[in-house]
């Protein structure tokens, strides 16, 4: 019965402990000129995992600003990720009349996974800052599992050994 109880406690602590979630934060800013029009854009985006192949980012979580000659005209779409062996970022503004504006840049192939600040190697001049965040302190569920584990080991060691009866011949 005690072994069943200890197994149930161990299973419960394993279920309660969840791994700490890490996040990757991307901060990008870039600028470009088309004739006399000066474009500037920036965004900050957080993902649970490093971005892989090219994908459209959710604008409701991307915190994007696109300025045309100093006036914010808003972002229409952000595409970011691996494309043709390079990491590409393309920020498109909401159309002004019949004109659509966008800023494109390319970065080294490792820049979406590794923490650091990167300058574009192709396209318009821009900067990408990648920050991998990991929790500095174990979560309470991790501490609970550790303490329960030590308790189970201590309880197992403390149990009396089963005595074996030996028959003696007279």
Tell me what the structure shows.
The protein has helices at residues 2-16, 59-62, 140-158, and strands at 23-34, 37-47, 55-56, 64-68, 71-72, 75-83, 86-93, 102-107, 116-119, 122-123, 126-133. With 170 residues, it is α+β, with helices and mostly antiparallel strands. It has three helices and eleven strands, in the order αβββαββββββββα. The longest helix has 19 residues, at 140-158. The strands form two sheets. Strands 5-4-2-1-11-9 form a six-stranded antiparallel β-sheet. The chain has a five-stranded antiparallel β-sheet with strand order 3-6-7-8-10, with no helix packed on it.
Element layout with pairings:
Elements (H helix, E strand, L loop, with lengths): L1 H15 L6 E12 L2 E11 L7 E2 L2 H4 L1 E5 L2 E2 L2 E9 L2 E8 L8 E6 L8 E4 L2 E2 L2 E8 L6 H19 L12
Antiparallel strand pairs: 1-2, 1-11, 2-4, 3-6, 4-5, 6-7, 7-8, 8-10, 9-11
Helix pairs in contact: 1-3
Q: What is the helix tally?
A: 3
Distance between the termini: 37 Å
> Which oligomeric state applies?
single chain
Percent of residues in helical segments?
Answer: 10-25%
- What is the makeup of the main sheet? 6 strands, antiparallel
What is the mean pLDDT?
Answer: 81
Low confidence ranges: none
Order of strands across the biggest sheet? 5-4-2-1-11-9
Radius of gyration: 28 Å
The gross shape turns out to be: rod-shaped
Order of helices and strands: HEEEHEEEEEEEEH
> By helix and strand content, what is the structural category?
alpha+beta
Proportion in β-strands: 35-45%
Number of strands: 11
């Amino acid at each position: 019965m005690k072994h069943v109880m200890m197994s149930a406690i161990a299973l419960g602590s394993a279920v309660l402990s969840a791994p700490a979630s890490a996040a990757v934060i991307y901060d990008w800013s870039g600028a470009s000129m088309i004739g006399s029009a000066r474009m500037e854009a920036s965004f900050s985006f957080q993902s649970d995992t490093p971005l892989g192949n090219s994908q459209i980012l959710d604008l409701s979580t991307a915190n994007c600003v696109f300025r045309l000659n100093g006036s914010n005209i808003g972002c229409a779409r952000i595409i970011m990720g691996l494309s043709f062996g390079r990491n590409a970022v393309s920020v498109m503004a909401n159309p002004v009349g019949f004109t659509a504006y966008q800023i494109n840049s390319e970065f080294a192939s490792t820049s979406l996974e590794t923490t650091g600040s990167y300058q574009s190697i192709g396209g318009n001049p821009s900067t990408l800052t990648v920050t991998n965040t990991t929790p500095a302190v174990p979560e309470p569920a991790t501490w609970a599992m550790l303490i329960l584990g030590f308790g189970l080991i201590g309880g197992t060691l403390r149990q009396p050994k089963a005595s074996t009866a030996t028959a003696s011949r007279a």
